[in-house]
Amino acid sequence: MQFIDLATQQKRIREKIESNIQTVLSHGQYILGSEIKQLEERLAEYVGIEHAVACSSGTDALLLALMAYDVGPGDAVLTSPFTFIATAEVISLLGATPVFADIDPETFNIDPEHLERALVALRDGLGDYPVPIGCTESSLVTKGIIAVDLFGLPVDYDAINAIAKKNGLFVIEDAAQSFGSQYKGKRACSLADIACTSFFPAKPLGGYGDGGMCFVDDEALAQAMRSFSLHGQGTHRYDNVRIGINGRMDTLQAAILHAKFDIFPDEVEKRQRVAEKYTELLSALDIDLVTPVVPPEYQSVWAQYSILSRDETQRSELQSRLKEAGIPTAVYYPKPLHLQPAFQGLGYREGDFPVSEDYSRRVFSLPMHPYLKPEEQEWISTIIGEEKGYS
Ligand SMILES: *Cc1c(COP(=O)(O)O)cnc(C)c1O
Predict the structure, then answer these.
(1) Beta bridge partner(s), residue 79
(2) pLDDT score at 124
(3) Which of the listed residues 230, 262, 294 is the one where a domain comes to its end?
(4) How far apart are CA 251 and CA 238, in angstroms?
């Protein structure tokens, strides 16, 4: 069994992928070919946003968004400690300071209450919420928030956007895992000031390599992100108005993504059915496991189907039993970012974000893709249900 079965998907669209690639080979515009603009337009329309800027990865999409907001040394950007490293890495890469706020125990997403407490601690230096070392004495300017739609479920944007507005902050939606999901009738990638997604092969809309996209309504921000992605290009290629990066998407990647996007809405429905089946099967088991919570008016795209075990021992017991049965599982994420060696300089400690720390010991993900068969899910559930030695 595959954790993510990309081969079955490829069989469905192989001919289209090959003909799209053939088209690029024939016209030869490997950089900034017409497929790029067409993909931007298709995806912007799908999410319901004015502008889309294709780029080289989800990480670069986040980097471009921060660059557009002129984030740099002396700035603080708040985010979740329970996410992929890229979310916070880009903040540090620009010389700014990542500030973490713990997650909501139900959704795994940044908790608006914790966010407010972190903001107060940064502003007043009251010390009742963990902030990076030296943060309160320095003249750090809090610039914005990167909210992460973890495992495909959007953050509570009404709450986050209200906090941001009150404090004059930008909100970037890290939608690397949530392209295709919904929040209160709006699609992910349209829920904050700028949204960034990823087309890494394992993401809900994955390509055959790296790729990403930024979405924004504001035209000036769109232009800035595009310019930053093209070496700070101004009105023409040899007019460089800012220091940027080589952050373009390849035309070939866009050609592949067109074929993948053709069947994407259907795949989103299939993912939903797979997730519902999992929840139905696992809820019927007489075992201590927490299945994912999707609040009313939210729709996940199920980048991962992640469950919580009782403790670390139960998790490793379940994982090894599943492995013996040929069922792959994964742990996202085994170490919260505030405890990563790379962020040691921030001075955070064990105990600072108890929910993230607890979940990093208990969470694990089951195989998840649109083509998972009900029989396979029943098999997975049977293996999980065989748990012995616990009451
Ligand atoms: C995958 C991912 C990224 C980075 O995307 P890449 O395309 O791999 O650079 C950023 N944030 C989150 C939450 C992700 O899951």
Answers:
(1) 100, 146
(2) 82
(3) 262
(4) 21
Instruction: Please tell me whether residues 240 and 268 are part of one structural domain.
Output: no
Return the residue whose CA atom lies nearest to atom 7 of ligand 1: 58
- Distance of CA 375 from the midpoint of ligand 1 (Å): 31
pLDDT tens per residue across span 119-173: 999 988 766 899 998 777 677 899 999 999 999 999 999 999 999 999 999 999 9
- State if residue 204 touches ligand 1 by the CB under 6 angstroms criterion: no
Domain tally for the chain?
2
**Arithmetic mean of pLDDT, 314-335:** 97
Residue bearing tokens 């998972």: 372
pLDDT of residue 389: 52
Query: Per the confidence metrics, is the pTM higher than 0.70?
Result: yes
The residues, ordered by sequence, that sit 6+ positions from 343 with a Cβ below 8 Å of its Cβ are 88, 92, 98, 337
| pLDDT value, residue 125 | 76
Count of CB atoms situated within 10 Å of the CB of 41: 12
Same domain, 97 and 168: yes
Residues 252 and 273 in one domain: no
Question: What does pLDDT average to over the chain?
Answer: 96
Pocket flag, ligand 1, residue 83 (CB < 6 Å): yes
Tell me the percentage of the chain whose pLDDT exceeds 90.
94
Q: Where are the beta strands (DSSP E) in the chain?
A: 51-55, 75-79, 97-100, 141-148, 170-174, 182-183, 186-187, 194-198, 212-216, 298-299, 305-308, 363-366
Q: Are residues 253 and 351 in the same domain?
A: no
> Do 58 and 149 lie in a common domain?
yes
Same domain, 183 and 47: yes
Does 103 share its domain with 154?
Answer: yes
Residue 1 lies in a domain: no
Dihedral angle computed from the Cα positions of residues 265, 221, 165 and 181, in that order, rounded to the nearest 10 degrees: 10
Domain containing residue 293: 264-388
What is the whole-number distance in angstroms between the Cα of residue 56 and the centre of ligand 1? Answer: 11
C-alpha 198 – ligand 1 centre gap (Å): 6
Shared-domain flag, residues 202 and 227: yes
pLDDT of residue 74: 94
> Looking at ligand 1, which atom is closest to the CA of residue 149?
13
